[in-house]
Amino acid sequence: MEINNKAYRLRSVLAVVFTITVMLFPACEKYFYTEPIEYPVTLAFSGIVMSEDTIPLANIRISFRAPGDPDSTATFTDLNGIYYFKQLIENVGPHRLTVRDIDGNDGGGNFLSQDTVFYLNKLQWDSRSVEIDFMLKKI
Questions:
Q1: pTM, whole model, 2 decimals?
Q2: Phi, psi at residue 10, to the nearest 5°?
Q3: What is the rounded end-to-end Cα distance, in angstroms, of the chain?
Q4: Residue 110 Cα to chain centre, angstroms
Q5: Residues 135/50, Cβ–Cβ less than 8 Å
């Protein structure tokens, strides 16, 4: 009789564990980012490039590079330090934005370059836009 009692307890515990797992799995699903399947998509990239003194920097080169893509997209900041471009995206990343001061001491001084590696998140994917600001240090 004891063997059946142990088997009954084991089945009961397994049933409870299974029930909890089935109930919690859909609730946890929203916390895991699943890659969208509507590729490719065009996203708008924008932001502002400033000095440490919060002065907008003009003529700063912004380069975008996608994984596995030997070519890069390049644009420059305007007089207000703002950059904007559209890019066809085929995956969530890792993507790289490279910010370079190419005019030397012209335009407010000579600034250090900055690289940013990022993955697209759900908010960026849903809004179809990526906003990244940069603050550059003087050399």
A1: 0.71
A2: -65, -45
A3: 83
A4: 28
A5: yes
